[in-house]
Amino acid sequence: MSRSYRMWRKQWYQRRVRGSVKEYRLDYSTCDNCETSPYWEPCNCTIDFPLDSKYSGRSVIMYYGLERYYQNHRKYATSRSDKQLRGYPLYRDSNCEPFEGERETDTPFAPCGLIANSMFNDSFSLEWVSQTYQDGTVVEKNKMINFTREGIAWPSDHGIKFRNPAGTDLVAAFNGTAKPPNWSKQVYELDPNPSNNAFLHEPFIVWMRVAAFPTFRKLYARINMDLNPELDNGLEKGKYRLTINYNYPVLYYGSRKFFVLSTTSIFGSKNLMIGIVYLVVGAILLILATTFACIVKKDLRF
């Protein structure tokens, strides 16, 4: 079997597997007028949406996404303290300015910096309202979909780049620190599970890995079928209801936010951006190669 044939087979298989990945995107930037409420006041809203086909798999992924949100800005991307996040909450780092600490009390923020202070804090719950069978019959279900927010961070981040202070008493370990100004709770109150709390809180770790492009999405949770025995290896075709705890303001600076449900394959979920980047870079390299070849050919004539 020739090398070119093996490459063709591999690319064909990848396209076929990618084509089997299903995705539903829901823009909820405006939701029951929650977008007009002050961000410090809690606001809940619900959106019903259909799945036109079954989302099969042992795990369905939930994402949140933002548009025109420039995490890649140099000042924003460097506004953090890597040493503090490795388990030294009292460490002061000038990179975190203007969110290094409280000026009145000279108390360091834990975590400090722009990235941590702007952490995404919308939350979701998902309900299976009804199931639609192939003959068009609709059966009411009204069952909550269980998901987990553990196991969503990169292994190279959790426990390596992000570590909690030594000891089991997180309250004592973070004594002498203050929460970031935009947070509603202390860092050691993020999760009742000690292995997913404070600097080891996986949604926090996911947010701290900044995106390369202004439109991005980040992993929110996994819907594992083991947590939902009533589901038959996936989300069934039918009607679903998304309940949103709307906290994160986006409209006043021209951004938008969205919720995504996606199945996966062995190559991951859909990601058209990578393909677009490869095509653009390939086209640029082809143009440069052609230009240099013409220049060299012209010089050889003389």
Helix-and-strand structural type: alpha+beta
- Give the strand content: 15-25%
Rg from C-alpha positions? Answer: 23 Å
Major sheet: 4 strands, antiparallel
Q: In whole angstroms, how far apart are the ends? A: 46 Å
Following the backbone from N to C, one meets helices and strands in this order, namely HEEEEHHEEHEEHHEEEEH
Notes on the structure:
This protein has 302 residues and is of the alpha+beta class. Helix content is 23%, strand content 24%. It has seven helices and twelve strands. The chain has helices at residues 3-19, 74-77, 82-85, 114-117, 170-173, 202-208, 272-301; strands at 23-27, 44-51, 55-56, 59-67, 101-102, 107-108, 123-132, 138-145, 216-224, 234-235, 238-245, 256-262. The strands form four sheets. The chain has a four-stranded antiparallel sheet with strand order 1-12-4-9. Strands 2-11-7-8 form a four-stranded antiparallel sheet, with no helix packed on it. A hairpin with a 5-residue loop joins strand 7 and strand 8. The relative contact order is 0.24. The model is unreliable at 7-19 (pLDDT under 50).
